[in-house]
Structures are given as structure tokens and as C-alpha cells.
Write a structure and sequence with these properties.
The longest helix has 28 residues. The protein is globular and about 125 Å long. By secondary structure, the protein is α/β, with parallel strands linked by helices.
Length: about 1550
């Protein structure tokens, strides 16, 4: 905020407010829309500018329709100096707050919206009002307002019209020194050190601003010059000065405390003997004059309460309130003698309230005979304007009525500069007439477009809850304060107010009672045309209070009334909404929680009426105020439960959609008040759903936003029911459940609210853990000999951690006292006392520290006093010199290590070695650089020539783990019983993959939980084994139940054509496994170094042929199951607590031999995948698997056999050219009865010849390339004892799904529905999971999961077709009208659960597709199918290397862009650009797609086009994948 110029009043006022406040409430139309002030406040905050009264002023953005002044109470009560920046639109609706806030030193800066009626409407609220009429005044008087608020202890409203100031010349910033001078910082500190203890639930309306008498020195004594001090008129708010307070005030003790104090509410904790008095209008005037005198002495700019310009003996004057005074004054000053307004004066008010009439008259010439009062007040409620009445009263009070000038009122419209002269002529011609006309309108009556108000909007994100309400209640739903309601005579803003809605609901309930009586009377009348309505009306009257019966009867009643046509029928139909038992709701924002007594919550609860409240809380967990008790919100849920008569639920639509539904239904059923708290955290309304999801998860996981439902007892002898729907719960809620249900408990809670304590508790625990861990380790080392060596690591994938631990062991072998820990686990305050310290760090993301070293680095980086003069250190960095190929990105190579080394040197640390650099591109990877660096370290420490060092044990590999596992048992069973952690042992994590489950943690929550001293949010992914992806309706229902009750309420249909479940915590693993097996499926061998789920093309148009092929898929799947592992699987997962065996799935686990005839004790070197494709559809990506089978149809239409491919595979490591994807090589043809045996022997050759030393080189593709295709084929045939026949002809024309309805050869129907990225879940917009569940209840065919993550409703008979169509339509599942790009896209899971993910995938691809869709539509290509895939890492789960366009995650937000894959899945793509982000991607694609639209050949696919046009070269085989890429690495 260096010296510069200011061109707008918004910037000037925002700057003063920021510098002069502890806390600024920035009122905006929406959080995504800037206000007149907000962009400047945001800039100051982002730049971390320091303030004058606070070193770090806090700015909170609040929506203007969210009762923004409620946000002021908390900080104001806590002694904070609060300011508000807003437009005038909120003022009238905030009157109840203004009366109370007037007694706090709150400053409200108001940008008028070309109408002063809002100001005059609130003039009696008790605030002091100051008006600015130029850009310079806006800065000076904004500062004056803050100074006055501090001096008086009262609220000040500073208002101005931005439109009238827009043309002013730029002004200079006032320096902070002047601001410090004008503000009374000593008094400001007293305000800041004071706070109020809340004695009740309401905003305290009894507080009165008081002044110590020492602060009331006479104007003469304080300013050095006389200031008019007339007796001030009481205006209904300020007190008249008492007779005891006058000039004697200056004689009071100057050493007494000036903090105000009252018996009701104290604003200071300092006891004072100073005599105090209420603030009077005279005090306000004296104080503002003192402030303006001081300002004038410093700047030369003088201000007074009223300004008069013109002749000293003028007989006529114009009092302007709302007009552009500068323009009026300029024109009047230039008046010619012939002008009617020559020699006339101009009066303006800077201090509008308190109104000081005596001061006004003293400033004016005694010769005045006539005064024109020009005020802008279009919303007239009385004949005379408020300013006219003020002026009239002032003159009448100044002397006898005969001496008072004639006052003539005018209504001001909109004046343009060009019409000022004309307006003045009109004003004064009428004023000087013999009988002036009152209330003439001057100027245009319509508002200019520039001055029109910016309407508030309901955030689109909040529509999620509105949509659920509509889905659940349909025609029964009535939202009393719905946004945008068109209620007669009521503004849309007021109609959306919860208090208005409550009143409307009460009236509506009373109206319905009367309506029921009217219906009862009508049922007995003879005024209908027919008798048909009578019986139905009688029946309806009986059921009027039963929602279900009433609703069904209402349809019959309305139908009969509609055909009756009588006047009585028409009268009843005019209120047809009342025929339904409505579900009545009020919608509120989280602003309700700041002060319960000022909101509608208390009123609804106290009424006891059957009204439901949905209160949306939008405060993001990451932005909550952890340590500021003044900012806390009261817990509405806790308050409502304490009230004792209301149903209460705490929900989060992005936490549990099902729980939201349950809560809304239960709230509707409860006969009494209901409060449903709805969490929807966002910073701006434009935030993505992903951001909201991540914030929700953090809040729910931390217990900040627990999910629960509470039903109070209906009778005295009943107990309340509480259902906790989330794992963690706030301590306050636990206390509530353990204590009596009394309202007084809430009222007695301490201001240091527990949720704020819990925010810092986690960090305290974390620090304590660090200290205990290091102290315990140090104590252990004390008895050892040798120098100490502390080794810290920051590691993402384990390399840096393993290196650190190995270095620690080697140090011990050399006699050093070594200690190894993660950087973030190290107590940083010990750094300066270390003797020798080594730091090993990997490189994450875009040159960032790994997650477990980020806090450590931030502390080191920001430290200013770290002294390392006695510390010897060494740094080793791990990275990849080719990871960022562009020259400008080379800085990211090993950046964390280089930065750390440089920083430690600046703190005086003594380097033991140069910074070591490990490079993945070196011959032995990072080990090359490490092997050079480590000897230098030992030499520096003097332990390089130690003899007798024992040999190091070889590192434990996956092969060791498998050998020692006792056929995959390990210690899994014991780990499941360990309740002290949500994790299992590292070795068991490798073994559980064979059982079909991976341990994961929620990466959205890692940082948060670490800060709280908690372990990661561990959970497990479970994958089913489902050959060919065919499931029965009952299996679908079973899997749906599992997802809802044991998982995260979603199902994932994977690219392996099976079910996958996420979020299964350890305690629910066994029940989940048992549920899957009870449903006649298994998870055995769904993952791990075995043959996994066998895939098969769905082929819906030829079911007979599909059955033949699918039977082969099932045969291969069962034939290649491990045997001995089945026994371990049964022992661990399928035994009951009493050791009884559970019925298991088919042949999956029926063999109990303690041997593995197929796999041997170490199983395969790596995973093994088999798939079957049915031409012409390559929807299974047959070339991408270890074994790919292409089904060949014989001349008789039956299955003749399979062409066999071997050696496909997708896994790659970034920038490791020794790894690459590969398409399968043709082995030949074999018949259906032999194909499973052929697969077995291909697997045998891989088992016996695959690389078991290097897992990155262990897949079958490398085995074949090492051997050669012909040699490999020969070995398979030798093992098999058979030979492959020659390849049979086939043709592929697509590898995407065919959507919509298709009819098979038998007359049955199949519907392929679009399931984006395979995620089955319910959202407010799309209740997909519910819809599929309802369909499964009546469907008699199958559900077929496709390899592209979509779903086929299979085998629907003609007789059921219409029913299914209706069901699909009801749940929006029939929509396949998507772009060709979206229908052809797919993504892996990636964040938040995949531990390998480097970037988003499933959660981001839909957004990327939307961006690219716009480009396609611009070029007329909306329906063009382009295969686009995205993965979060290079392992290739979504098979990206075969896509025409692919994005492979490299760092958060950055992707390698691949081009040139074959549309039929037959050709690999190639790197086009490395590490590009969204903006770059779209810049690349826009001209490329335009060129494709114009220059493509007939039927040419995008992947072929980019090769033909030279964008990329074709990849002919896997070994050339890294050659001839479009992006050549640049040298430094």
C-alpha cells in the first residue's frame, strides 16, 4: 500500500476501513460478484498489508441477502473495531440490528445506489451519519468516521453516492502516519482489550455507549479555538446534555480510565472510578469538530457539520441533500447577475445525524428569507420530506416564528451535468415566486442504467438442497421464503427473508384451517352441478392432516371439481394448493447462527408449529476461525436440541446424500418444528463441486460438521433418539447427549467456545507427539557411543524414506548415534542445537516438497532468527532431470533439496558436503548420485575408514513377502483385530491385494489430519471378481446395500468390468467381504500378482453368441483361480465368530489344498490380465492386456475360436524410457475348448521367465520383448504341447459403447446408459443410484457392466419395455444425448483415494470435457466421437496410451498430453506436450480441432488425422513409444 493515487471512492474508503479496523465485513451481491469495495479489500488482504489498529486486519465476505449485519455482533462484542462496506440496499432490512449496533464503535461505509431514501429511512436508528460529496471527502470523512467511532464508542454510518463522485480527479493516498494521528490509538487499544460476557442468547439491546467525563473536555480546551456549541436538539436517539455536564468536564481527573462501563454490559474489564455519562449530540459534535480541526491542521482541508457557500447577505439559499453539490456550487459560483440564482447561497450537511439545528442556523446569514430544500427521497411515505422537516424545525427553534424564512421543498430526480443550469433556474424561479409550489420534482424521474442496483442472487450451489426438496416432496413442497417469489406488494428481497417467510407460513397454516372448514361446508351443500364432488370432499376432509391419504385423495377431488364447472367448484379450485398437506419449509443461511435471538430460529422453535427449517452453512472448514472466539457461530443444532421440542438433523449433501434424504423425510413426518442444518462450504458461488466435496470431507472427518439426526421425546416417558451418521462428533454434542436437556446449559457456555479450542488442540497434540518421540529416541541413544547424526526425510513414494533409514543403519554401523524421522515430525525448535543433521528430500509436483516435509520447509523458509552457526548439515535431493523437459521448467529439478541447502547456508549452517543430486535418468537412477555423495558424508564425519562393518541385509521385496506369507495369509487376520489403528501392516498391504482389497487413505484429508495429530483417514478399496461384467438384479441390490451401509455410498464400475467399492473402513472389511460372497461373487484374485478379472465384450445385439463367449470368460476366470490362496481367503474373511464356515461363491474358494499348482508359492512376477473382444467392437481394448482373445464367429454363426494376442500392457513410469506401454502380439488361433489351456501356458511362461528382481520390468510385455515374439510363442507351445493355428481374419471399427436401446436376435431389448466415469451415486441433480436400485427391484434380466465403465440394462422382454422406459425416464437414466466426446471419454479414480495419483482424473475429466465440447461445438463437431481418456498417474488403469487424446497426470493440475492413438484401440499414442495445464491444453486443441473440422478426410478419425497432418508421429510398437515425440527436451 505504497504512496500512489486513488481514482475511486470505493478504493479510498476500502483502504481507510482496512487500515482502521480489526475486522471488515465486505457485503457483496454474491461471493462470486465484486462489490464497489470488495476487490480493493481482497487486494489488501492478499498482499498481507498491515493495518494501523491491527497488524493483520481480517476481511470477511458476506452475501447481501444473508443478513450481513449479524456478522458484526460477535467481533464487536469481543472489543474488535469493526467496519462494514456495503451498498444502501441492506439498510432498511437491517434496522433491528442497527438500533443495537449503534452502541458499539462500528463504522458502516455505505455506497448509495442513487437514492437517499434508505438513509432517511434509518435516520433515527442511533448511528451518527456523515456524508461525503467528493472523492477527497470520501477519504477524509471515512477516516473521520473511524476516529469518531473510537472516541464516542458509538456507531457511525458514512455514506456517499459513487455515481456523483465518479468524475472527480484522482487523489493521493493519505499516509499511515496521518491516520495514526487522527485515530485515537490509545482509546482504540482500550476497546480492543475489552470484551463482553454474553449473559443471554440475544444480541444485548441494553448496552449504552458511555463516556468518561475526562473524554468530554470543552471544545475550547481541546482544540484551541472556539467551536459553536449550541444546545443540541434531541432527535429521539441521543440524550440531551444533563445540567451536570458542561465546561466542568475539563476539570475531571486526567488519569482515570476512559473505557466505558455499565452495569448491564461492560465493554472493559478495567475498573474505573471516572464518572461516566451517556453520549449526547453535543458530545458527538464536539468530538467530530476536534477530529476535523486536527485533520485541517495536518492537511489544510477544513470540514464542518454544515457548509454554507455564497454571499454573506443572501436572501435565498438552496439546501441540497442528494444532488451533486460540487456541480451545483460550481454553477452557482459562475452565475451571471441576470441569473435568478445569482447572489444565492448553497447549504450542505456533512453531519446528518445527530441533527444540530442550532449549529445550522448559526452558520447561515441572518438575512435569509427563503430556503429551497432539495432532497432525493423517491419512496415518500409522508407529504413532506424528512430533510424539509429537519430544516423547518431548525429555523423555528432558532427564534420567533416570524423570523423563520420560508421553506420550500423539492423532490430531486436524476440530474445530468448538462441540465444543472436549467434545474437551478427552475428551483429559484419557483422559490422566489409570490406563492411557491411545494414538492416540485427536479430532474429526470427514471434511473440511469449505470446507477441500477445489482440484484442479489441465490447461489447456484445451494440449489443442490432445493432440488432434493423438490425430488422428495414434489407438489407438496411449499417454501415460504423462496428466492425470487412474486408476492403481491412485497419486494423479492423481503419475500426471501426468513422472518417474512415465518409470518407467511403462520398465515398460510391459519388459512388452511379455514379452508378445511370451507370444504366441510361445501361437502354438505347443494351448490355443485353434479353430486360427484361431495363424497370425495367429505373423504378429503377426514384425511386432510394425513399427507399420504390427503395427497392421493386430492387428485380425485381436483379431477371432479375440474369437471363440475360450478361457481363453488371454481372457488375451491382457486386454492387448489391447499388440498395437499404441504411440507412447509423456511430456507435460511448460516448468518442465522451468529445471533440466534435476532434470527427466525428462536421464533419458529418457540411457536411449536409444524414448520421445517433448512439452514445452509457455507463456511469452508479450511477458512473457519480457529482461534477467534468472537467470530464463532452458535450451534443452531445444539440450541434446537436444548429447546427440546424440535427434530434436528445435521446433514451434508456432499458427505452423505442418503442421510440428507432421510433427514428431510423425517423432518416432514415430525409433528412440530424441525431444523435441518445443511452444510455446503464454498468461498465463492463459482467454486466447483470438487472444491465443495473436499471441504465437506474435511469438516465431516474432523467432527467440525458431524452428521446426525435427533428426534425429541413425544411424551414425558419417552427417551429422545439420536442417530450418529458420521464417524466423528464434536465434543459439544457429546456433552449435550450426556446432560439434562435444559436451555440454560447453552446460555452458560463460555465464550472461548470448544470448537475453537479443538481447532488448536490438534496442533498442540502434534507438537507434543513430536517432542515425546524425539525425546524418547534421544534417551535411547544416550548410552551409545559416537557423534550424533539426525537424519530427516521428506518422501512421497518411499524412496527418500528408505534411503534415510538405510543411511541411519549405516551410520549406526560406523558408531554414530543416528536418529531418523520425517521432517514434519521433527520439533523445529531443536534445529539450532543439533550437531550433525542430514536432510533427504524427494521432489513432488512442480518442484514442491513432499507432503511430510511441507510444514517443515514453510517454517524454515519463513524463519528470521534461526541460528545454525554451530550446526553441520548435508542435503541429498532426489528428482528427475527429464521430468520437466522445457527449458523454463528446469528449475523444478531437485528444487526442494537445492532450496533447502541454500537456505541453511544463509542461516550460517556448515555444509558437510555439496548438495547431493539423485537423478532418475542416471544409469542406476538416483543411486548413481547417492553412491558418490554418501562417502563424502562419512569422510566429513570422520567415519569413512571404519573396519568390520557388517553386511547390510538385502531390502525386503514383494517376492520375499509372498514367500513368507504362508500362501497369502501373512498377519492379515491379526491386523484386522487391531483396533488401535485403521491401517494394517505394510507387508499385509501387499498381500491383501490378492484378496481383492487395497488399503488407501483419503488424500483430501491428509494435511488436516496430520495437523490434528491423527493418522491418515485409512480405508479400503474392494474389487469384485465378475467375469464378463454380468450381474443379476439381486446382485445389484446386494452391491447397492454394501455401498450404502459399508462403503462411501457410491459404487465404481471399473475399466476391468466389475464393481469396486471405496471408503470401507477396516472394521467393516470382513462384513463387506462376506456380503459379496453371499451374493455369489468373490474378491479373491481380483487384484495381486495373479490372473485378475476376465473381461468380455457385452455384444447386446447377438445374445446367443455373447453367451458362448461369456461362458469361455467364466471358464478361464475359474480355471486360473489360485488354489491354496482360497483357503487363506476363507480363513480370514468367511468364517463366523464361532469359526463356522460360510457358504461361498461357486468354485471360487472350494479347493483347500495347501499348494498352488498354477502359481507356485511366489505366484506371478506381476499382475496378469485377460480380456475377450467380439468384433467389430474392441470395447475391451484387447491389445492392452497380457492376453487378448478375439472371438471368431464361424460360418454357422457360432463361436469357432479365438485369435490369441499376448504381451499387451499399459503401465509406465514418467520419464523412465525403460518402461513403456505395449500392444499385444499375435500368437495365432485356437479353439474354444483349448483356449483356457493356452492362457494357462502363456501364464506359465511368464511365471517362470518374468523378471522378479525389477517390478518395473516384470510384466509379460517385457518378457516377450526380451525373448522376442517367436521365441516366446515357441516356449508357450512347448509348455502346452500344442501349436497355435494361423490367425483368422477379423475387423474392428470401434472401441466405444453403443448407447441407447438395441434389440437382439430373440426380440429382447438392451439399453446402454451413460454412466460418466463409472461412478454410481446420488446427487441432487441426478438420483442415479436410487433409480438403478428401483429398476433392479423389478428387472428380470441382467445388468451388464461395460469395459468403458457404462451399464447395460440387459434382456428386457418386449412386455416390460415400456415399464423400463418409464423408469429410466423418471430417474433421468434415459438421457444419452451427450456429445460424442463425452460418450467416448473415461477416467481412472485417482484422487482422493488412489495413493499413486499425481493429479485429478475422475473428478476433473468431466470439467475438461465441458471445455473441449465448446470448441467442438464451435466447429460443428458435437457428435464426433473422439476417444479421450485421463489418468492420475502413468500406470494406465483407464488405458490412456491407446486413446486418440489422453491426459496422464504428472503433478497436481499438470498432465502429459498424448496424441495419435487408434480409434479402434489398435495403436499407441505418443507424447505431444509435457506437463501442460488446462489453459495450455485448450490453447493447443482449439486450432487443432478447427483444422480437423475443415481438413479431415471422409470417415477419418482424429487420431489418424493428427498423424497425417504431422502433429505427431505414429507409434509402431511399444519400444518406439518414447522416440520421435513432438516435444524435444531442451538443454539448459
Amino acid at each position: 500500500m505504497s504512496a500512489s493515487t486513488i481514482s475511486t471512492a470505493g478504493e479510498a474508503v476500502a483502504r481507510v476501513a482496512y487500515l482502521s479496523s480489526d475486522y471488515v465485513v465486505s457485503v457483496q451481491p454474491s461471493l462470486a460478484s465484486e462489490s464497489y469495495f470488495s476487490q480493493h479489500l481482497e487486494a489488501f488482504t492478499n498482499a498481507k498489508y498491515t493495518g494501523v489498529v491491527s497488524s493483520t486486519p481480517e476481511v470477511e465476505a458476506v452475501r447481501q441477502n444473508a443478513d450481513p449485519l449479524l456478522s458484526v455482533y460477535g467481533p464487536a462484542r469481543a472489543g474488535k473495531l469493526v467496519s462494514v462496506t456495503t451498498t444502501s440496499s441492506i439498510l432498511v432490512q437491517s434496522i433491528p440490528h442497527l438500533y443495537k449496533l449503534a452502541h458499539y464503535p462500528v463504522v458502516i461505509h455505505v455506497a448509495l445506489q442513487s437514492d437517499y431514501s434508505e438513509i432517511t429511512a434509518i435516520r433515527q436508528c442511533g448511528f451518527t451519519f456523515i456524508q461525503s460529496e467528493s472523492l477527497q471527502e470520501s477519504q477524509d470523512l471515512a477516516l473521520s468516521a473511524h476516529a469518531l467511532a473510537i472516541k464516542s464508542g458509538r456507531g457511525v454510518i458514512h455514506f456517499f453516492d459513487p455515481a456523483k463522485l465518479a468524475g472527480d480527479r484522482s487523489i493521493s493516498y493519505e499516509n499511515k502516519g496521518l491516520i495514526e494521528t487522527i485515530l485515537d490509538l490509545n482509546l482504540a487499544r482500550r476497546h480492543q482489550s475489552s470484551s463482553e460476557q454474553e449473559s443471554n442468547l440475544y444480541a444485548d439491546g441494553e448496552r449504552v455507549a458511555l463516556l468518561p467525563e475526562e473524554n468530554l473536555a470543552s471544545p475550547m480546551a481541546r482544540s484551541g479555538s472556539p467551536i459553536p456549541g449550541p444546545e443540541a436538539e434531541a432527535d429521539g436517539v441521543f440524550e440531551k446534555p444533563s445540567s451536570s455536564s458542561g465546561s466542568s468536564a475539563s476539570a475531571r481527573s486526567s488519569q482515570s480510565d476512559s473505557g466505558a462501563q455499565s452495569s448491564a454490559t461492560s465493554i472493559t474489564s478495567v475498573e474505573s472510578t471516572v464518572q461516566q455519562k451517556q453520549v449526547t449530540s453535543e458530545d458527538i459534535h464536539a468530538q467530530i469538530e476536534q477530529i476535523w480541526t486536527s485533520l485541517g491542521e495536518k492537511t489544510g482541508r477544513r470540514y464542518r457539520a454544515f457548509e454554507y457557500t455564497g454571499n454573506a447577505d443572501a436572501t435565498a439559499a438552496l439546501f441540497s441533500f442528494g444532488a451533486d453539490a460540487a456541480l451545483l456550487g460550481e454553477e452557482m459560483g459562475a452565475a451571471q447577475s441576470t441569473d435568478v440564482y445569482s447572489n444565492c447561497g448553497l447549504i450542505t450537511a456533512r453531519l446528518y445525524r445527530p441533527w444540530l439545528g442550532s449549529v445550522l442556523t448559526r452558520y447561515l446569514p441572518s438575512t435569509l428569507k427563503r430556503v429551497a430544500v432539495l432532497e432525493q427521497n423517491r419512496r415518500k411515505t409522508t407529504k413532506w420530506g424528512p430533510m424539509l422537516l429537519d430544516v423547518l424545525t431548525s429555523f423555528n427553534a432558532a427564534g420567533s416564528p416570524n423570523a423563520a424564512p420560508l421553506i420550500v421543498g423539492y423532490q430531486l430526480g436524476y440530474l445530468e451535468p448538462s441540465t444543472i443550469r436549467q434545474a437551478l433556474n427552475g428551483i429559484f424561479s419557483n422559490l422566489l415566486a409570490e406563492t411557491p409550489i411545494q414538492n416540485l420534482t427536479i430532474g429526470a424521474s427514471t434511473e440511469s442504467k449505470a446507477a441500477q442496483k445489482q440484484a442479489a442472487e441465490q447461489p447456484e450451489l445451494e440449489n443442490a438442497y432445493m432440488k432434493i426438496l423438490n425430488q422428495v416432496f414434489n407438489d407438496r413442497l411449499h417454501i415460504a421464503n423462496r428466492f425470487g417469489a412474486n408476492d403481491a406488494g412485497v419486494s423479492a428481497t423481503l419475500a426471501a427473508n426468513p422472518e417474512y417467510g415465518f409470518g407467511a407460513l403462520v398465515a398460510r397454516m391459519e388459512r388452511r384451517v379455514k379452508f378445511v372448514e370451507e370444504v366441510q361446508n361445501a361437502a354438505k351443500s347443494n351448490d355443485f352441478t353434479t353430486k360427484a364432488p361431495l363424497s370425495w370432499l367429505s373423504r378429503w376432509a377426514v384425511d386432510a392432516e394425513d399427507p399420504k391419504k390427503c395427497d392421493s385423495t386430492a387428485n380425485e377431488v381436483l379431477a371432479r371439481l375440474g369437471t363440475d364447472g360450478s361457481p363453488l367448484a371454481r372457488q375451491l379450485l382457486s386454492n387448489k394448493a391447499l388440498f395437499r398437506k404441504e411440507s412447509q419449509w423456511l430456507i435460511g443461511s448460516d448468518a442465522w447462527a451468529y445471533d440466534l435471538g435476532n434470527s427466525g430460529v428462536h421464533h419458529v422453535l418457540a411457536s411449536g408449529k409444524n414448520i421445517n427449517m433448512l439452514i445452509v452453512d457455507s463456511t469452508p472448514y479450511s477458512e473457519r476461525s480457529k482461534n477467534d472466539a468472537s467470530r464463532r457461530k452458535k450451534d443452531i443444532g445444539l440450541y434446537a436440541m436444548n429447546f427440546g421440542n424440535a427434530y434436528v438433523a445435521s446433514t451434508a449433501v456432499y458427505g452423505s446424500y442418503t442421510q440428507v434424504l432421510e433427514a428431510m423425510i423425517e423432518a416432514d413426518k415430525f409433528d412440530g418444528p424441525s431444523v435441518v442444518l445443511a452444510y455446503l462450504p464454498y468461498n465463492k458461488e463459482s467454486d466447483t463441486a470438487l472444491t465443495v466435496l473436499q471441504e465437506t470431507k474435511k469438516a465431516v472427518d474432523a467432527g467440525y460438521w458431524p452428521l446426525y439426526r435427533w428426534t425429541p421425546p413425544i411424551t414425558d416417558d419417552m427417551e429422545p433418539t439420536f442417530q450418529l451418521d458420521s464417524e466423528r462428533i464434536k465434543r459439544e454434542l457429546e456433552e449435550f447427549l450426556a446432560r439434562d436437556n435444559q436451555l440454560t446449559q447453552l446460555m452458560r457456555r463460555q465464550p472461548a467456545f470448544a470448537s475453537n479450542l479443538s481447532g488448536s488442540y490438534g496442533s498442540e497434540v502434534r507438537e507434543l507427539q513430536k517432542r515425546k518421540a524425539k525425546d524418547a529416541y534421544s534417551k535411547l541413544l544416550d548410552g551409545l557411543y559416537g557423534a550424533p547424526l539426525t537424519i530427516l526425510f521428506a518422501s512421497d513414494n518411499g524412496n527418500a524414506e528408505n534411503l534415510a533409514k538405510r543411511l541411519g543403519n549405516r551410520g549406526k554401523a560406523r558408531g554414530l548415534k543416528t536418529m531418523v524421522m520425517a521432517m514434519d515430525d521433527y520439533p523445529i525448535e531443536d534445529f539450532s542445537s543439533e550437531e550433525n543433521i542430514v536432510l533427504i528430500t524427494a521432489t513432488a509436483g512442480q518442484g514442491e516438497f513432499p507432503q511430510n516435509g511441507r510444514n517443515f520447509w514453510e517454517t524454515i523458509k519463513n524463519s528470521v532468527d534461526l541460528d545454525l552457526a554451530t550446526v553441520s548439515f548435508a542435503v541429498f535431493a532426489l528428482g528427475d532431470s527429464h521430468y520437466w523437459p522445457r527449458k523454463e521448467d528446469k528449475i523444478y529439478y531437485n528444487k526442494p533439496g537445492k532450496d533447502l541447502d541454500a537456505k541453511l547456508r544463509t542461516f550460517g549452517g556448515k555444509p558437510m558436503t555439496d548438495c547431493g543430486m539423485g537423478d532418475d535418468q542416471a544409469p542406476d537412477g538416483y543411486q548413481t548420485g547417492y553412491n558418490e555423495w554418501e562417502p563424502l558424508l562419512w569422510k566429513s564425519l570422520g567415519v569413512d575408514n571404519v573396519e568390520g562393518i557388517p553386511d547390510e541385509p538385502a531390502p525386503i521385496t514383494n517376492e520375499d513377502i509372498k514367500i513368507a506369507s504362508n500362501f497369502l495369509r501373512g498377519t492379515i487376520a491379526e491386523g484386522l483385530q487391531d483396533e488401535s489403528t485403521g491401517a494394517i501392516d505394510a507387508a499385509d498391504q501387499q498381500l491383501t491385494k490378492f484378496h481383492g482389497t487395497y488399503m488407501q487413505d483419503d488424500r483430501d484429508l491428509r494435511d488436516q489430519r496430520k495437523a490434528q495429530g491423527l493418522e491418515p483417514a485409512y480405508s479400503f478399496m474392494i474389487r469384485c471378481r465378475l467375469a464378463g461384467g454380468v450381474a443379476t438384479p439381486q446382485q445389484w441390490l446386494d452391491m447397492d446395500d454394501l455401498a450404502t451401509n459399508l462403503g462411501n455410498e457410491t459404487m465404481k464400475m471399473t475399466t476391468r468390468q466389475t464393481f469396486q467399492f471405496h471408503g470401507v473402513v477396516k472394521g467393516k472389511l470382513r462384513p463387506a467381504m462376506q456380503a459379496i460372497n453371499k451374493s455369489m461373487m468373490t474378491t479373491l484374485a481380483a487384484c495381486g500378482d495373479v490372473n485378475r478379472n476376465v473381461m468380455c465384450s457385452p455384444h447386446p445385439t447377438n445374445q446367443a453368441f455373447h453367451k458362448e463367449v461369456h461362458d469361455v470368460a467364466k471358464l478361464i476366470s475359474d480355471y486360473l483361480l489360485p488354489s491354496a490362496a482360497a483357503n487363506a481367503y476363507h480363513e480370514i474373511w468367511l468364517k463366523t465368530d464361532d469359526d463356522q464356515k460360510i457358504q461361498v461363491a461357486g468354485k471360487a474358494v472350494t479347493s483347500f489344498e495347501e499348494a498352488e499348482p498354477l502359481y507356485g508359492p511366489v505366484y506371478l512376477p506381476r499382475k496378469f490380465k485377460i480380456t475377450i473382444a467380439i468384433p467389430p467392437h474392441n470395447d475391451t481394448d484387447v491389445y492392452a492386456h497380457d492376453v487378448g482373445l478375439i472371438a471368431i464367429k464361424g460360418e454357422d454363426g457360432k463361436l469357432a475360436g479365438f485369435n490369441v494376442l499376448a504381451g499387451g500392457g499399459m503401465g509406465v513410469s514418467h520419464n523412465n524410457k525403460k518402461t513403456y506401454p505395449r500392444t499385444g502380439s499375435m500368437m495365432g488361433f485356437t479353439t474354444p475348448d483349448k483356449v483356457h489351456i493356452a492362457c494357462k501356458h502363456i501364464m506359465f511362461v511368464q511365471r517362470d521367465h518374468g523378471d522378479r528382481k525389477n517390478r518395473k520390468h516384470a510384466r509379460l510385455k517385457y518378457t516377450i520383448d526380451d525373448m522376442g515374439v517367436d521365441v516366446f510363442r515357441t516356449k508357450v507351445e512347448e509348455s502346452w504341447g500344442e501349436k497355435f493355428e494361423g490367425e483368422r481374419p477379423f475387423h474392428f471399427d470401434s472401441n466405444v459403447d453403443t448407447f441407447g436401446w438395441q434389440k437382439d436376435e430373440r426380440g429382447d431389448w438392451h439399453f446402454t446408459m451413460f454412466i460418466e466415469n463409472g461412478r454410481i451415486e446420488d446427487t441432487a441433480e441426478f438420483p442415479m443410484k436410487t433409480g438403478l436400485r428401483e429398476i433392479a427391484k423389478i428387472h428380470k434380466g441382467e445388468f451388464t457392466l461395460t469395459p468403458n465403465q457404462h451399464l447395460i440394462l440387459s434382456n428386457v422382454p418386449e412386455s416390460e419395455l415400456q415399464t423400463m422406459k418409464d423408469m429410466l425416464k423418471k430417474y433421468k437414466l434415459d438421457n444419452v444425448d451427450f456429445s460424442g466426446l463425452r460418450l467416448s471419454s473415461s477416467a481412472c479414480v485417482a484422487f482422493p483415494t488412489c495413493g499413486l495419483a499425481m493429479a485429478e482424473s475422475e473428478r476433473y475429466l468431466p470439467e475438461m470435457v465441458s471445455h473441449v465440447e465448446k470448441i467442438l461445438e464451435e466447429n460443428g463437431l458435437r457428435k464426433e466421437s473422439i476417444v479421450m481418456r485421463m489418468t492420475g498417474c502413468p500406470n494406465g488403469c483407464a488405458r490412456p496410451w491407446l486413446a486418440e487424446v489422453a491426459f496422464v497426470g504428472k503433478a497436481f493440475g499438470a498432465y502429459n498430453m498424448m496424441l495419435g492413438g487408434g480409434y479402434h484401440g489398435q495403436r499407441l499414442n505418443k507424447l505431444y506436450r509435457s506437463s501442460v495445464k488446462e489453459e495450455e491444453i485448450l490453447e493447443i486443441l482449439k486450432p487443432m480441432i478447427k483444422s480437423y473440422a475443415i481438413e479431415r478426410n471422409e470417415g477419418e478419425h482424429f487420431g489418424d488425422f493428427v498423424i497425417r497432418k504431422g502433429y505427431i508421429k505414429a507409434t509402431t510398437e511399444g519400444k518406439t513409444f518414447h522416440e520421435d515425440t513432438a516435444e524435444v527436451e531442451e538443454d539448459e
